Amino acid sequence: ALQERANALATEKGIAIQSAQVMREEPADPFRKVAVRLTLMGELRQFTDFVAGFEYGPHQLTIPFVEVNRRGAVPGAKGPRTLSATVEVSGYLLAEAKPKAPEAEPAEGEGEPAGGAGEGEAAAGGAEASPGEPTPGELPGGDAGQGEPPPGPPLAAPGAT
User: Fold this and answer.
1) DSSP secondary-structure letter at 148?
2) Which CATH architecture has domain 2-94?
């Protein structure tokens, strides 16, 4: 999805993609970081429009690496010089193994208020839900793993990769 977005944006802005390298995914519970490194050619205005397209686009993406080079001047040539750039674009997707964890959390949340009328709300609600699903989810997650997710919406739904 990220590479398709980069290709579409490059075509729209008049940038030529010379190569694209899909980077290794990195886990960032409950997400996974995906990245693509692109080698581009184009004029300065096209390049800035391309970068702005990622910054102000519909998805929260980051550009952690940029390297821009300018080709040498051609005698007698007029107009802007062509730039060569290497850009890494990254974003976050929901991890595919995690759809069970978000389902388990609402079940616990619903179980606690419902169990509030009984004596063992913490014991019954926590004990019934804990052995079933949250045990795998609690290893990376639990309350400690529920820290703030990376900014912005994920690139795609868990099953849409």
Assistant:
1) P
2) 2-Layer Sandwich (3.30)
